[in-house]
Design a protein that fits this description.
Strands 9-5-2-10-1-11 form a six-stranded mixed β-sheet. Helices cover 57% and strands 19% of the residues. The longest helix has 44 residues. The mean pLDDT is 82. By secondary structure, the protein is α+β, with helices and mostly antiparallel strands.
Length: 423
């Protein structure tokens, strides 16, 4: 049968059974729309957030950590190890850091003219080399410290938590990073709501923000953490928690990482940390996409049943076509072509529907989602292959679903069909 004649028959049959065919294949459009939406969201978050963060992170920095020590004693990241790292070729500076192992709490916060003297909470404390603290504060306006006050670096995420949770719940105004500078807080190093022993009291003053800072806590000078450790634990820790190593370039950073691993330390680069977050986003997107795949499978089952029913109902028509010269392949292609055309139409409909939903969802997210660090201007990214792939996937699902009934239609003997006509 010529292609032109096959197309005419396909269109005529679809018009004749348009309601049933449309209902049986509509699930493909919904599945493609859902898949289009979810993949576009995953691509958008990856491009706008992950790649945006990567562009702002120093690629010449390596974070060296003490290994877990699952097999024997771990290599201590002490002053000797820090000095060894500092002497490596291509290393510009090494900043040791220590996470406090003793309890810490906060009592009283003053933000400009507003004071919360009774506000109390337990929190985490990180100690940074003072030079690293100064580098983090260098991008902000200078804040003067009074006698007995110590500088504090906060995480931008903590400011987001304050603005979107704590401030509205307590009728407080939201703050920009610049407005939060100079915030003063009472810090009790060595004391918490559950543990009351020897402690050091300090007044912390916010002098800057850094994404490296502890999220739910404060980052203060390393010597303050060491002094509190001596008081509360009787001795300084034998090892730092980590060391930030700044190198001349990415090549020197790679060589330093290899050297640190040979010495028994764990390493992490800024790129690796963000790429891990990217893998998490991909995994969540894949899990959500399973919902769309399930919808497609249900739609495929509907097409299979509809095509099987049509084959039974049109057995006489099939027999007549075989008698006038149509081959088994012609009959099979006829039914597969009908399914493919339905898949094409529903694929286009699904992509259009998914595109419209992404436009609406993006507008709502940008308008109503609270501001947070690295909030993207566009939550969706729709590459060309997503449009083409959505339509092709719909066609493939439809054709594959109808293939077995189509093959069965091609094998119906003409004599059997004519006996049904006589009956």
């Amino acid at each position: 049968m010529r292609l032109r004649n096959t197309l005419r028959l396909i269109l005529a049959n679809l018009r004749r059974h348009r309601r049933r065919s449309l209902l049986s294949s509509l699930g493909i459009a919904l599945g493609i729309a859902a898949l289009f939406f979810l993949v576009g969201l995953g691509q958008g978050v990856r491009r706008e957030v992950i790649e945006g963060i990567l562009a702002k992170l120093p690629l010449n920095e390596v974070i060296v950590r003490q290994a877990p020590g699952l097999l024997g004693e771990p290599e201590p990241l002490d002053d000797a190890a820090v000095e060894l790292l500092r002497k490596r070729p291509g290393v510009t500076e090494v900043y040791p850091a220590l996470t406090a192992a003793f309890p810490c709490s906060l009592l009283g916060v003053t933000i400009g003219p507003f004071a919360l003297p009774s506000f109390r909470t337990d929190l985490g404390v990180d100690g940074w080399d003072r030079r690293m603290l100064e580098a983090a504060a260098a991008g902000y306006r200078a804040v003067e410290l009074g006698p007995g006050e110590i500088p504090v670096i906060l995480s931008p995420q903590l400011l987001d938590f304050y603005n979107e949770g704590f401030a509205p719940a307590n009728d407080l105004r939201r703050l920009t990073a610049d407005q939060a500078l100079g915030t003063r807080m009472g810090l009790f190093l060595g004391r918490s709501s559950f543990e009351r022993g020897a402690f050091i009291e300090r007044t912390g003053v916010v002098v800057g923000f850094s994404p490296k800072a502890v999220v739910l806590g404060v980052t203060i000078p390393l010597e303050e953490v060491l002094q509190a450790a001596r008081l509360t634990r009787g001795a300084e820790p034998e090892s730092y928690t980590r060391a930030y190593v700044v190198c001349d370039d990415t090549r020197a950073a790679a060589e330093l990482g290899s050297f640190a691993q040979k010495q028994g330390f764990d390493i992490e680069t800024s790129r690796e940390a963000v790429e891990k977050a990217g893998l998490t986003i991909d995994a969540v997107t894949a899990v959500l996409a399973v919902v769309a795949v399930i919808i497609l499978l249900v739609a495929a089952f509907g097409i299979f049943n509809n095509t099987s029913l049509l084959v039974s109902e049109r057995s006489v028509e099939i027999g007549v076509l075989r008698c006038v010269g149509c081959t088994r392949g012609d009959i099979r292609n006829l039914f597969a072509g009908e399914a493919g055309l339905l898949g094409l139409a529903n694929g286009l409909l699904g992509v259009l529907l998914g595109w419209l939903v992404t436009l609406a969802a993006n507008a709502l997210l940008v308008e109503y989602l609270p501001e947070f660090t690295f909030k993207p201007k566009n939550f969706f990214h729709l590459p060309w292959w997503l449009f083409v792939g959505g339509v092709l996937l719909a066609v493939v699902v439809a054709v594959v679903s109808a293939w077995l009934p189509a093959r069965r239609a091609g094998r119906i003997p003409p004599a059997e069909a004519l006996r049904k006509l006589e009956a």
